[in-house]
């Protein structure tokens, strides 16, 4: 009897060792995470939902047949390898680029990614060989693990316990959210949705006619010119979280009224006028890139999937349109602190981010570079040379100050030249700004203060530093979060066209804009409709080269 007990005990110990080792290795492959924004994976203490399901399916298969065939185990290993690769790509791309992976887009732009990272050819080749070897090793390890798993599941005694554990785990996954219960906290995010999403993207991007049928039509860029601009520089400012709550909410409107009045006076001092309207943003409270894409392409991007699909196309953009008409196009992105290869879709001549635009002062919060300093650098690098001595500029500049949580806020600096130096701000100013408390419960005061700052530096710039003929477009990318904009707020944002060219502004008035900074009529069109409207306003009879030379 004791011999049988020892034999049974030994059998259970061996079973637990083999099953546990195989399960832990497979689970690790399917739940890995990213190590601090690098290319290296790290294990997590989470459970794979897909692995639990696979074990529950494999167990009765083995019980009925007495074993699992070599083909089944090979298929499981291959699926595990694909799943693990998808998991790695998803967590790594999210960590490095701050967005989900897009196999079609990323696959097409591998070369651009490598160039952006200053990767030499031999390094890229060595990396490709290493990737193939790693995938082969993962497949080999997964195959061995599934073989061990099948052998252990062929032993009858543990099956009831394994089956019960699997059913309970799957049940906990299924009842998640019921009565507010969180029953998935020990599960890793499943890989299957990532696979399904990539399959859907590839289907839409590769099958004939899918892109055209999925995306809205592009404006007729080729049918227009930019003659009505007369070679003026164009500065398109996406004012972060600048929504119509600043107009419709009585408290916010009253608090911002003096800043708006000061801004209007600054425009007059600079010989400029302004007309305004409202357009409906494709996003709310965040997702600024959807608004940028809608305006710059003229395509409806309310569906994030359509945005990703758009980036995989060669659709025309406002950027390429300006470039084709002799403009130097600049993407001025102080908020980007990581590579953004998908930005190549738009066709900018220059892409400047937080790492290469030349800011030398102290960092302010997560975003580092204050908006006024960004504008000073932009002026010095792209607009300081008189307009007649350089090609005209088309510049896209998303601001940061009014990004939640609206702190820290840099002080206004009267001496714009100082903003180009190391002492742009003192360490005391940076420390004081950092010390300002952030309140998620009462964010409106900080939000209003951030917009006062925006009106002040922009007004000062347009009054005395900007090129005389500069056409400035200020547009909110989306409404701020609901704790600021209010419950059930609209998705409308203000749009301001600022110029010294009265004839150009009259063209905008004919298209529905109203004089001043207070557009009160609700939006009748989405932001993508602003692109063809700009094309119409900027279009004009082509000048004869001979008369232009005269």
Description of the structure:
An eight-stranded mixed sheet has the order 6-5-7-3-8-9-4-10, sandwiched between helices. It has a two-stranded antiparallel ribbon with strand order 1-2. It folds into two domains: about 1-205, no CATH class; about 230-540, Alkaline Phosphatase, subunit A (3-Layer(aba) Sandwich). The model is unreliable at about 545-550 (pLDDT under 50). The chain has 21 helices and ten strands. About 50% of the residues lie in helices and about 10% in strands. With about 550 residues, it is of the alpha/beta class. The protein is elongated. The chain has helices at about 1-30, 50-65, 70-95, 105-110, 110-115, 120-155, 160-175, 190-205, 210-215, 245-250, 250-270, 290-295, 305-310, 320-325, 370-385, 425-435, 445-465, 480-485, 500-510, 530-540, 545-550; strands spanning about 35, 40, 235-240, 275-280, 330-335, 350-355, 395-400, 470-475, 490-500, 515.
Could you tell me the strand content as a percent range? Answer: 5-15%
Q: How many strands appear in the DSSP assignment?
A: 10
Which fold name is given in CATH as the topology of the largest domain?
Answer: Alkaline Phosphatase, subunit A
- Number of separate helices: 21
Task: Please summarize what this structure is.
The protein is 50% helix and 9% strand.
């Amino acid at each position: 009897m004791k011999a049988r007990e020892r034999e049974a005990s030994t059998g259970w110990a061996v079973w637990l060792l083999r099953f546990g080792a195989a399960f832990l290795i497979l689970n690790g492959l399917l739940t890995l995470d990213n190590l601090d924004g690098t290319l290296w994976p790290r294990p997590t203490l989470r459970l794979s939902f897909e692995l639990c399901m696979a074990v529950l399916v494999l167990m009765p298969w083995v019980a009925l047949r007495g074993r699992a065939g070599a083909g089944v185990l090979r298929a499981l290993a291959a699926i595990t390898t694909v799943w693990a690769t998808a998991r790695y790509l998803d967590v790594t791309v999210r960590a490095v680029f701050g967005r989900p992976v897009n196999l079609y887009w990323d696959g097409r732009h591998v070369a651009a990614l490598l160039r952006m990272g200053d990767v030499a050819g031999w390094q890229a080749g060595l990396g490709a060989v290493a990737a193939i070897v790693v995938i082969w090793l993962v497949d080999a390890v997964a195959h061995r693990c599934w073989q061990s798993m099948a052998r252990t599941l062929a032993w009858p005694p543990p099956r009831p316990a394994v089956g019960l554990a699997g059913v309970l785990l799957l049940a906990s996954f299924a009842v998640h959210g019921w009565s507010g219960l969180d029953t998935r906290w020990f599960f890793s995010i499943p890989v299957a949705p990532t696979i399904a999403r990539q399959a859907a993207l590839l289907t839409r991007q590769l099958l004939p006619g899918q892109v055209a049928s999925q995306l809205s039509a592009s404006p007729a860029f080729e049918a227009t010119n930019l003659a009505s601009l007369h070679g003026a520089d164009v500065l398109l400012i996406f004012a972060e979280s600048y929504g119509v709550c600043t107009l419709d909410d009585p408290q916010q409107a009253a608090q911002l009224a003096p800043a708006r009045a000061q801004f209007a006076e600054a425009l007059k001092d600079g010989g400029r006028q302004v007309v305004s309207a409202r357009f409906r943003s494709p996003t709310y409270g965040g997702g600024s890139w959807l608004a940028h894409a809608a305006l710059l392409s003229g395509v409806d991007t309310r569906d994030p999937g359509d945005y990703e699909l758009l980036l995989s196309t060669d659709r025309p953009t406002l950027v390429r349109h300006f470039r084709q008409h002799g403009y130097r196009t600049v993407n001025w992105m102080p908020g980007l602190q990581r590579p953004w290869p998908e930005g190549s879709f738009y066709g900018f001549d220059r892409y400047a981010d937080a790492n290469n635009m030349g800011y030398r002062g102290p960092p302010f919060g997560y975003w580092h570079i204050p908006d006024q300093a960004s504008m000073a650098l932009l002026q010095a690098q792209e607009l300081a040379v008189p307009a007649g001595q350089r090609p005209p500029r088309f510049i896209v500049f998303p601001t940061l100050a009014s990004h939640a949580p609206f702190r820290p806020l840099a002080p206004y600096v009267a001496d714009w030249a100082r903003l180009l130096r190391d002492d742009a701000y003192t360490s005391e100013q940076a420390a004081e700004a950092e010390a300002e408390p952030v309140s998620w419960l009462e964010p409106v005061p900080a939000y209003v203060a951030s917009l006062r700052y925006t009106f002040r530096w922009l007004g000062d710039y347009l009054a005395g530093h900007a090129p005389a003929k500069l056409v400035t477009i200020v547009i909110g990318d989306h409404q701020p979060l609901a704790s600021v904009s209010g419950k059930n707020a609209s998705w409308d944002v203000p749009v301001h066209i600022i110029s010294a060219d009265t004839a150009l502004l009259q063209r905008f008035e004919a298209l529905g804009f109203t004089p001043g900074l207070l557009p009160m009529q609700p939006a009748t069109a989405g932001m993508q409709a602003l692109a063809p409207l700009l094309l119409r306003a900027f279009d004009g009879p082509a000048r004869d080269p001979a008369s232009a030379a005269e």
